[in-house]
Amino acid sequence: MSEKTNSVRHDYLRHDKKFPHVWCPGCGNGIVLGSLIRAIDKLGLGKDELVLASGIGCSGRMPVYVDFNTLHTTHGRALTFATGIKLAKPALTVITVMGDGDATAIGGNHFIHAARRNIDLTAIIINNQIYGMTGGQYSPTTPYGSFASTAAWGNIEHAFPIAELAVTAGASFVARGTVYHAAMLDGLLARGIAKKGFSVIEVMSNCHTQYGRRNQMNDPVTMMRHFKEKAVSVDRAAKMSAEEMNDRFTIGVLADVDKPNYMEEYQKIRERAQQH
Ligand SMILES: Cc1ncc(C[n+]2csc(CCOP(=O)(O)OP(=O)(O)O)c2C)c(N)n1
Ligand code: SF4
C-alpha cells in the first residue's frame, strides 16, 4: 500500500493525472467528492481497500478523479457491477456514485432491489433533480411544475423522494444531506460507508447549468441558498405539519437498522452447500 501523507487531496486523488476536472465551475459534484475523501480519511481506509463504481452522467465522472480501484460502467448499472465486485472480493469496501437519473430512472429497479436484498454496498446518489450531462431533460426527481429541456411548459410528473424510497425498500442506512451542509455530509458519508448492509446517502446538489438556469436559480450561490432554506433536520421536521413542510425536505439520518446482509447470508448458504 502507498504511504500516507498529511494531505487528503494527495492521498486519495489522481491529482497529477486527471485534473482539471470536466465539471462546470461551482458544480455540487466537487463538494461531494471532497466530502467523500474526507469521510474515507476519517474512517482510516487505505485507497487499495476501496472501490468506487459509477454509471454514466456528470456524477458518473467521479471515479476518474479518485486514486482507488475504480470502475466507470454503463448508465444505470453501477449497482450491478458493484454487487459482482463485492461478492467476488467481500473484504473490499465498495461504494457507488450515481446521478438521480442513473439511480432512479434507468437504474431504478437495481436500486430498489439492492435495498431489498440488503447488499453490503454504499450508494451515494447525487440528486441534482435533472439529467445534467445530456442537456437538462427531466428525471424522476424533477419537481412537479418546474422546467426542463423536455418540460418547456412545466413538469407534469411527480418526483420520487429518493431517501424515503430507500427506507421503504429496506436499506439498512439511509440519510439525506446537501452540498450546502458539507461538514454534515462528511459525517453522513462516513456513517454510511462504515455501516454493514445497503447504505444510501442522497445528496441534494446544484446543477445550476441545466436545472438552475431554467428555474430562476442561475448560479451556484442561489442554489446553495435554496438548499439552506428548504432543508429541515429530521428532528425538527417531526414537529412540523405537512403544510409547514410544504416544499421543504428533511436532512439527517432517516434509517439506521441492523439486519442480515446479502453477502453474509450468501456465505452461509455456500458453507451449508459445501457440507453436503
Ligand atoms: C443506456 C443509455 N441510455 C442513455 C444514455 C444517455 N445518458 C447519459 S448520462 C444520462 C443522464 C444523466 O443524468 P443523471 O444520471 O441524473 O446524472 P447527472 O449527469 O445529472 O450527474 C443519460 C440519459 C446512456 N449513456 N446510456
Ligand atoms: S451540467 Fe450540471 S451536473 Fe453537469 S457538471 Fe455542469 S453543473 Fe454539474
Structural description of this entry:
The protein has a single domain (8-274), classed as Rossmann fold. It is 39% helix and 16% strand. The chain has helices spanning 8-12, 28-43, 62-65, 78-88, 100-106, 108-117, 162-169, 182-194, 220-230, 234-238, 242-245, 262-274, and strands at 50-54, 69-72, 93-99, 122-127, 173-178, 199-204, 231-233, 249-256. An eight-stranded mixed beta sheet has the order 2-1-3-4-6-5-8-7, sandwiched between helices. Strand 1 (50-54), helix 3 (62-65) and strand 2 form a beta-alpha-beta unit. It is globular and about 65 Å long. The model has no long low-confidence stretch (mean pLDDT 96). Bound molecules: thiamine diphosphate and iron/sulfur cluster. The site of iron/sulfur cluster has 12 residues, from loops.
Highlighted features:
276 residues; Rossmann fold; binds thiamine diphosphate; binds iron/sulfur cluster; 8-stranded mixed β-sheet; 39% helix
